[in-house]
Design a protein that fits this description.
Number of strands of chain A: 11
Radius of gyration of chain A: 13 Å
Shape of chain A: globular
Largest sheet of chain A: 6 strands, mixed
Largest sheet of chain B: 7 strands, mixed
Strand content of chain A: over 45%
Number of strands of chain B: 13
Order of helices and strands of chain B: EEEEEEEEEEEEE
Helix content of chain A: under 10%
Oligomer: heterodimer
Order of helices and strands of chain A: EEEEEEEEEEE
Distance between the termini of chain B: 32 Å
Largest interface: A-B, 23 and 27 residues
Helix content of chain B: under 10%
Structural class of chain A: mainly beta
Strand content of chain B: over 45%
Number of helices of chain A: 0
Radius of gyration of chain B: 14 Å
Chain lengths: 113, 116
């Protein structure tokens, strides 16, 4: 079936560097994408979202890029901090307007001080 | 705390026993979702409610699983005759749907089930 996946399972960066986490999706009909951050023992925390009629969206220290041609999504974190260490998931809305999400496998981001 | 609340946080049960989890969504949210997450994987959709109506169930939700939201507020997820393969984190999320628009879904901290 359709799925969302990640290129890199782990990413290690130095504090202050920029981080880029990538995600490939296969459902060309998906029109809404979300990045979640999940810390150990906690539920996923919404970071940023993007609709398919956009190719870039910026938040505080985070930017999401969407390339529909190659079905690729990325999350850029500027000036990465130790508190950014977590597993990051991309998710797509596979259920139209009902917000049923399909999650990828996740990327573990480790920020070294 | 006005976020999504789940109880208990942890549950250890013997194989074959029944367990029930509770989710209290954000108060004004009319949509409630249940997901299951196993170690190293992303959450998988199980089912969702709009108010008290259960609108969709995943094929992952076997006959041993049942979810309710009787008054359109809190929800319960029951697993009967638990199996070791049911061991996972069970996540609840809620969102507000107005017309054709949804707010983003906010997740609770989850209930970690261990079946021994």
């Amino acid at each position: 079936g359709e799925s969302v996946g990640l290129h890199l399972p782990t990413l290690s960066v130095q504090e202050g560097d920029n981080s880029i986490i990538n995600c490939a999706y296969s459902n060309s009909a998906s029109d809404y994408f979300i990045w979640y951050k999940q810390e150990s023992g906690k539920g996923p925390q919404f970071i940023i979202d993007i609709r398919s009629n956009m190719d870039k969206r910026q938040g505080q220290r985070v930017t999401v890029l969407l390339n529909k041609t190659v079905k690729h999504l990325s999350l850029q974190i500027a000036a990465t901090q130790p508190g950014d260490s977590a597993v990051y998931f991309c998710a797509e809305n596979s259920g139209g307007s009902n917000y049923k999400l399909t999650f990828g496998k996740g990327t573990l981001l480790t920020v070294n001080p | 705390d006005t976020g999504v609340s789940q109880n208990p946080r942890h549950k250890i049960t013997k194989r074959g026993q029944n367990v029930t989890f509770r989710c209290d969504p954000i108060s004004e949210h009319n949509r409630l979702y249940w997901y299951r997450q196993t170690l190293g994987q992303g959450p998988e959709f199980l089912t969702y409610f709009q108010n008290e109506a259960q609108l969709e169930k995943s094929r992952l939700l076997s006959d041993r699983f049942s979810a309710e939201r009787p008054k359109g507020s809190f929800s319960t997820l029951e697993i009967q005759r638990t199996e070791q393969g049911d061991s996972a984190m069970y996540l609840c999320a809620s969102s507000l749907r107005r017309g054709l628009q949804n707010t983003e879904a906010f997740f609770g901290q989850g209930t970690r089930l261990t079946v021994v």
